[in-house]
Amino acid sequence: MRMFKRYVPKMIAKHVSRLFSGRIYIDGRGGYEFNNGQLLVPVKAQQRHYQTVNEINQEIRRLKDC
Predict the structure, then answer these.
(1) How far are the Cα atoms of 5, 9, 34, 36, 61 from residue 27, in angstroms, in the given order?
(2) Domain of residue 46, residue span
(3) How many angstroms separate the CA atoms of 24 and 3, rounded?
(4) Sign of CA pseudo-dihedral 29, 26, 24, 50
(5) Which is nearest to 25 in space by CA: 43, 4, 46?
(6) Number of domains in the chain
(7) 11: domain CATH number?
(8) What is d(CA 38, CA 58) in angstroms, rounded to the nearest whole number?
(9) Which domain of life does the UniProt lineage start with (predicted)?
């Protein structure tokens, strides 16, 4: 499990797309799992979780398009 002390979507997207599956924890945002190179919405998700997943998955798509 990788822990991020700051929420930087580009850095997190690079990590998720490289490892392809696993878990991460972001201070102030909570724990997340990722599979097939995409961040997954956690169980009992709140609005901030959906927003975080959406932002990071958009960055992953941007990285794959380049």
Answers:
(1) 5, 13, 17, 23, 23
(2) 2-65
(3) 6
(4) positive
(5) 4
(6) 1
(7) 3.30.1910.10
(8) 10
(9) Bacteria
Q: What is the pTM of this model?
A: 0.91
Spatial neighbors of 12 by CB under 8 A, at least 6 apart, are 4, 24, 26, 56, 59
Rounded distance between C-alpha atoms, residue 3 and residue 22, angstroms: 12
Amino acid type, 59: E
DSSP 39-51: EEPPTT--HHHHH
pLDDT in 10s for each residue of the chain, 66 residues: 999 999 999 999 999 999 989 999 999 999 999 999 999 999 999 999 999 999 999 999 999 997
Angle at 51 between CA 47 and CA 48, to 5 degrees: 35
